[in-house]
Amino acid sequence: MKIIIAILLFSVIVLFHEFGHFLLAKLNGICVQEFAIGIGPTLVGKKIGETTYGIKALPFGGCCVMLGEDEAVDDPRAFNAKSAPARFSVVFAGPFFNFILAFLLSLFVIGLGGADPAVISDVTRDSGAYEAGLQAGDEITRIDGSRIYNFREISLYNFLHTDNPNVEITYKRNGESDTVTVTRKKGEEGYYMLGVVGSGYQKQNAAGVIRYSFLEVRYEIKSTFLSLKYLILGRFGLNDMSGPVGIVNMIGDTYEQSARYGWVVVLVNLLGFAVMLNANLGVINLLPLPALDGGRLVFIILEMITGKKIPADKEGYVHAAGLVILLTLMVIVMANDVRKIIF
After folding, report:
1. What global pTM score does this model have?
2. What is the dihedral sign for C-alpha 51, 56, 62, 66?
3. Which CATH number belongs to the domain containing residue 183 in this structure?
């Protein structure tokens, strides 16, 4: 069951990403040769007009193949025959559509499950927050100058910032703001803790659902960027990364743990997981690396700046080399996922 759910989740997310490329390509008069879900051999395919629509063997990824995408083609409907702004919009649309889907799913997550504003419901005695004078009802708005909206951002900060126990907290009380320095103390798990308890998830009206849906996407994007930052700095390693196998396992765990509480909890948790995956996919694809959408955008931006177009075949070689590296990394991560599950 969990494998079926994972495949459906992946398929919808990838479909929406590729649909972004597809839609903007069509709007810009670019010939789309193939639009498919999955990678590898085609299981089912049907050609409608100029485009072959299909489902491939492995449900990890997808494709929107455009005429003249990686090679010079003498055709006015080829990708590389279009203007730089047109090509930019087509490439950027994939990640952007993931952010759109993340927002749409967040509407259901927040509408059904509520939001977690950064409002304190209780302060632990003898904690740093207690000693600094924080009280129940205070709304934390900034941590070390960084804007805070969700209570989970406080937990995220505590998890990632373990080098200095002192933190500057800005909060609102009775409509007025104040800033104090809190000396965090280590909890049972070894992380520094402020010593505050959140007010939990609260139901929202229509305006609140829309607002916190935007903030939900913001939180997931922020979490992704911070994770990448600490991965580059060496704080996170291979064991902290997950590929398709690991994600399938996490989706299965989420389903099994939620099932005992009813379908609403299952739906909220799975959709919340999908919001995270969409934000991750959107951010990762915008990284300026070969073979990713971000890598393609770099070439287009350079063209806009210099006024000189990089030959399609040379750009194709760069992306091909990047694809080999990415696939190698994916194999390594998948092998590590299997190792973690078995052992």
Report:
1. 0.88
2. negative
3. 2.30.42.10
